[in-house]
């Protein structure tokens, strides 16, 4: 057997030299490292991890020595684990002259083939990021991808640890068609793995659509609408949010599944023609109500004509609520003059006498 023959061969040289010498050495030299390696007891491993297609002796036992590179089994598929009965492993080792294995009471040996998993979601995100960088696509949640062939998670040998690198890309914005190729590099000497994906990419927006047909002048309820993603090209600029739709009135008949736009809606009519209404008269310190009949249809804030059923007079009133209109009564005000009256001045009683000339004084002689 290999192990027995190797021990005998390695021990022969030092024993012959010792017999030729009449005097033994003072201190026994250490054993040859090759002998120490052979004398180590092979120990079975309970779990084995391999990276290639073969399971070798050095994978299943410690202290395999020169037999470590001998293949004894094919490895399981990438990313999977298989189990081998201990008796089967020992028999395979014995076939290659490896004996005296310490099994440590292990009943079976599990073998896992290491691999790198590349989830389909990761590939999808790489496609979206490519479209964002090169073609100005928006947020990932606003991009819908359709694949010509459904992509699946990829399992690669563990030596392929590189990132997905873009190597080729084509995109037609009119049709949304894309053809993108990525490459993953491995360890030195490994041929890069190429991954090609094709399909259609569409930018979408969350929009409000009707869940049932809505008649003209019908008020929309919360159960009448839903949020759906539609292609961005189909969504008009006047599409509105869900909260702004609830309680509004349809200007025209709308079909189920239709995207709701602001031009499709109006404020609901709170007062309709010939409807009985409450007339509210309000002024400073005064609040009166009376019964009336609307002569026009109006929504909140509209000014409509209303007939006062008590006075039989027609008044203009503002719609303030369902079946309610308000008349604001103006209070006349008397404005005091800002400038006080000025009394006329009395005429002057005294006339000015004309000036009397003064004769010059006579010269005085002495």
TrEMBL record:
Signal peptide location: 1-19
InterPro entries named in the record: Flagellar_FlgA, SAF, SAF_FlgA
Membrane-crossing residue ranges in chain numbering: none
GO cellular component, one term: periplasmic space
One GO-annotated biological process of the protein: bacterial-type flagellum assembly
Protein's cellular compartments: Periplasm
Stored CDD domains: SAF_CpaB_FlgA_like
The organism's place on the tree of life at top rank: Bacteria
Gene3D superfamilies, sorted: 2.30.30.760, Antifreeze-like/N-acetylneuraminic acid synthase C-terminal domain (3.90.1210.10)
SAF domain mapped to chain residues: 205-266
Pfam families referenced in this protein's UniProt entry, alphabetically: ChapFlgA
Keywords: Cell projection, Cilium, Flagellum, Periplasm, Signal
Matches recorded under PANTHER family: FLAGELLA BASAL BODY P-RING FORMATION PROTEIN FLGA
Entry protein name: Flagella basal body P-ring formation protein FlgA
UniProt organism field: Rhodopseudomonas pseudopalustris
